[in-house]
Here is the input.
Amino acid sequence: MDEIKNIIDELGIAALETSIKIAAIAVVSDKGNLVIQTENWDLTNQTNIIMNVIKGDHLFVLSDVKYSVVETTAEGIVGTSESGMGHILFVPFQGGVLVSYAMPQADPPKALSFLKPFALRLNGKV
Here is the structure.
């Protein structure tokens, strides 16, 4: 668990230093268990929604905000708020998914590319 926390802490620092506009981060296991989340985001009891997006849902509500999947690539999945409230980024890895909230001003494809190396570091650790 310490190793996962360290990776998430490094991700947060790097996101701040590079102005990637990521405001919150969580890791969810393939079984739908919330492994870790930043203090500013509470995804308790919402992991089934995340897992359903990974399985193909295109519309979802997370933390009372409605999102639509607007892009699915090899890097991950981008859900964008219909009301301009930002983006949810999903980057699957071996054992789970790295989930991030990106602010409205973020560039989702750039943010996915930024997140991918951190997700790869989580492979097999969940």
